[in-house]
Amino acid sequence: MLGQEIYRIKSNTEFRTFVQASTFSEIVGGQASIAPVGSGISGFFVEAQMPNIIQTRTQSGEDVSGPKYQVNDYQIAASTHLANNELNSGNMIVGDKNGNIIPQKALKDVPDISVNLVKAWSMQESHAGTNGSILQVNNNGDFTPDKTAIGITKGATFSTNKEINLSIRYAIGKGFSSSPNYSKDGSGKIISRNWSWRGWNEAIKGYNGGGVKGYEKYIQTMLNQSRTPKPSNY
Q1: Phi and psi of 81, rounded to 5°?
Q2: I need a surface site. Which of 53, 95, 228, 233 has the fewest CB within 10 A?
Q3: Is residue 183 part of a domain?
């Protein structure tokens, strides 16, 4: 059930989602609660931050504040929370643009991705999942061999949860630059790499690959103009 919603509160005043607690710090640090009686679930759960409402899809000028565009908000919240936990756990597998696996020591420089950034990103890619797979990570026309480093095969389709996880991992790889360290024996063999994290803006820009001019700026504008949800948005 990791990465999936296990409990939801939805009313005229509250919009909240919860996922299974997946880290020791969540359980012992006071963040987690025991699953409520009658919910049909057991164990500990923790609340995942819900995303803001995107007001206008910048590139097309569309009003996207209505309920149609918020359908995936609960899953965006859950999947982003769990992806950040995976990143911080030291178990996330990320490859760079050449398919090299990025070491965990380098991944420690990557801060959590904002759920609001994921929402804006999804709005750019698919109108938040209303127009195809939510982050379009595996379009046949965009397939590149470096995706195989994180387990993506050409033509494969994924659940919304899995797609968000893979997209975040793929974007992280695009956010790194590296320089090789060569063997001193003159063989030209690369023995290690120096890794440098360039930030989420560069990661998102690299994810686009230049297909849409101003891609990352459209997303940043949507992020900056996003607002706290109101009942009318849902």
Answers
A1: -60, -50
A2: 228
A3: yes
Does the residue 34 lie in any domain? no
Tens of pLDDT, residue by residue, the chain (234 residues) = 344 555 555 656 567 777 776 655 554 444 555 555 455 555 677 888 999 999 999 999 999 999 999 999 999 999 999 999 999 999 999 999 888 999 999 999 999 999 999 999 999 999 999 999 999 999 878 888 889 999 999 999 999 999 999 999 999 999 999 998 888 887 888 888 899 999 999 999 999 988 899 999 999 999 999 999 998 898
CA–CA distance, 12 with 111 (Å, rounded to integer)? 34
Domain that holds residue 183: 49-233
Question: How many domains would you assign to the chain?
Answer: 1
The Cα–Cα gap between 13 and 19 comes to: 20
3-state class of 27 per DSSP? helix
4 found inside a domain: no
Q: If you count DSSP H runs as helices and E runs as strands, how many of each does the chain have, helices first?
A: 7, 8
What distance in Å separates the CA atoms of residue 150 and residue 94, rounded to the nearest whole number?
6
Q: Is 44 part of a structural domain of the chain?
A: no
Tell me the pTM. 0.86
